[in-house]
Amino acid sequence: MAKVIDVKIKSTDQTKKYNKSTVFEIYLRHTRIDRKLRSTIEKVLKSNHISLTEWLLLDIINQQKGNLSMKQAAKILGVNLPQITSLTSRLVSQQLIVQKTNRHDRRQHLLQTTVKGRALLRLVKPKLNTAVSHLMKPIPDNYLSFYNRVADKLSESSQV
């Protein structure tokens, strides 16, 4: 007989019972989906000479329009400051971003995308959209919508 585990649902304060094998199956499926998506995205990025983490940082910096500190970038990406320092150094050496000293706090460096960085974003985003759309094409919209709702609920419940 399979063991049953209790899972507390944050929004309702109810406890649901799930078969451990069901939880494990969800984990395995999510892992497979993650690998497939990551692989698809990384192929596009690799052909444009940028890693996934570098791409994420470049995109985040661009969205913040030059108002992103190294500390904020580390928090958003969930990495430590030495890792952000290494990532920013690589992006600076590729001339995709620049570091500016904050005029209000000289200890703080703000990150900004360069013309070359913004051009790379404009070039690669459509390629990423096409690659991911091709991967998702056989999946009906209502399935994707349901999957997104499930993923949102899982994210919410993991932030307890």
List key phrases describing it.
6 helices; disordered N terminus; two-stranded antiparallel ribbon; alpha+beta; 160 residues
SSE layout and pairing:
Blueprint: E1 4-9, E2 14-19, H1 20-47, H2 52-64, E3 68-69, H3 70-77, H4 81-93, E4 97-101, E5 109-113, H5 115-136, H6 141-158
Antiparallel strand pairs: 1-2, 3-5, 4-5
Helix pairs in contact: 1-5, 2-4, 3-4
Describe this structure in words.
The structure is a single chain. The chain has 6 helices and 5 strands, in the order ββααβααββαα. It has helices at residues 20-47, 52-64, 70-77, 81-93, 115-136, 141-158, and strands at 4-9, 14-19, 68-69, 97-101, 109-113.
Beta strands, count: 5
Helix segment tally: 6
* Low-confidence residue ranges: 1-13
Strand order in space, largest sheet: 3-5-4
Radius of gyration: 20 Å
Helix content: 55-70%
Dominant shape: globular
Structural class: alpha+beta
The fraction of residues in strands falls at: 15-25%
SSE order in H/E notation? EEHHEHHEEHH
* Through-space gap between termini: 30 Å
**Taking all residues together, what is the mean pLDDT?**
84
Let me know the largest β-sheet: 3 strands, antiparallel
